[in-house]
Specification:
The chain is α/β, with parallel strands linked by helices. It is built from 8 helices and 11 strands. A hairpin with a 6-residue loop joins strand 5 and strand 6. The longest helix is centred in the C-terminal third of the chain and has 19 residues.
Length: 317
């Protein structure tokens, strides 16, 4: 169970003083040899620390193997909105789940359960992020631009990506727990992966819950279109398939709300992403049907323009 790591990291992250180095120290206490990088980026309204953890697989590419690499991204604006809000915010669950996943994976490897392929965990740590007006409830903003986040969180070696993001501020997925999205690749919203649905039922113990997404949601921020949140922003920065893992609730909860983290729901997400990591690296889980995708592109052409801000926006820049 990964609940221990979720609870310990929650206590560590619930502080105005927390930073990337504190997370690195926590993970190094599990495995002193863990491959962890921390980078501080300054933005217009503050700074944040990007954390990257490379978990090497038995047949991972970083060691000269050929097993596919899974990226697990903790998407968020910030883990705190101080001084406006006091404490760890709902939006921080993505970072919490991602780093708890890294902690559990490191612990597993030390106990002899090394995964087949490499897994890269990336997120960022900011306890003093700004907020942003949004309907039906306010968003958490970030001190750095979304393009900077993608640059530091989306690694070109990731062959597929799970993007974990708190997704409670909506009225379209009223389920307490977590949901997954259809696969997004190069501007296409594809069929939901049967393999991921199977992993969901096994790890969650319930029927799969799917987060509905729209064309607006898979376009970049800054184009004037409505987005349910930033869960699929990694998809605009890669040709690899991306699936959102949304931490959800029955009620509408603002991203900047405090006291709204349910550690058991976060732990469920950690188990899900690690089960995907086990099967994906072993080539027993696919995010999309390559033949179907190739056929669709032949029929309808490239949709990669949806990964850009669009002609009208570009014309005014």
């Amino acid at each position: 169970m990964s609940l221990k790591h979720v609870m310990e990291l929650y206590e560590l992250m619930d502080s105005i003083y927390v930073n990337g180095e504190a997370i690195k120290e926590y993970l190094h206490n599990i495995d002193p040899a863990a491959n962890i990088e921390v980078k501080t980026i300054q933005g217009e309204s503050g700074s944040t620390d990007f954390v990257r953890v490379l978990l090497k697989g038995k047949n991972g590419k970083s060691s000269g193997g050929n097993a596919p690499t899974l990226g697990i991204i903790g998407r968020l604006g910030g883990i705190g909105a101080r001084p406006e809000m006091t404490g760890f915010v709902s939006d921080g669950d993505g970072a919490l789940a991602c780093m708890a996943g890294a902690a559990k994976a490191l612990d597993m490897a030390l106990k002899g359960d090394q995964l087949e392929g490499d897994v890269i965990f990336t997120t960022h740590i900011c306890p003093t992020a700004p907020t942003l007006p949004h309907e039906p409830v306010p968003f958490m903003n970030s001190p750095v631009d979304i393009s900077v986040m993608n640059e530091n969180e989306v690694d070109e070696t990731m062959d597929a990506i799970l993007s974990i993001d708190t997704t409670k501020g909506n009225q379209v997925c009223n389920h307490k727990g977590f949901a997954i999205t259809p696969t997004v690749k190069e501007g296409y919203i594809l069929k939901i992966s049967d393999d991921l649905l199977h992993v969901y039922t096994q790890s969650a113990g319930i029927s799969p819950v799917v987060l509905p997404i729209t064309m607006q949601d898979i376009t970049p921020y800054g184009n004037g279109l409505f987005h349910i949140n930033s869960i699929l922003q990694p998809a605009v920065a890669t040709t690899s398939p991306v699936v959102g893992v949304a931490i959800t609730t029955e009620s509408v909860v603002a991203g900047c709300a405090t006291g709204a983290t349910h550690v058991t729901d976060v732990e469920s997400v950690v188990r899900f992403v690690l089960e995907v990591a086990k099967t994906y690296g072993a080539n027993k889980c696919t995010f999309f049907d390559e033949q179907q995708f190739t056929h669709m592109k032949k029929l309808y052409g490239s949709m990669s323009h949806l990964q850009t801000k669009g002609n009208e926006v570009q014309a005014h820049e």
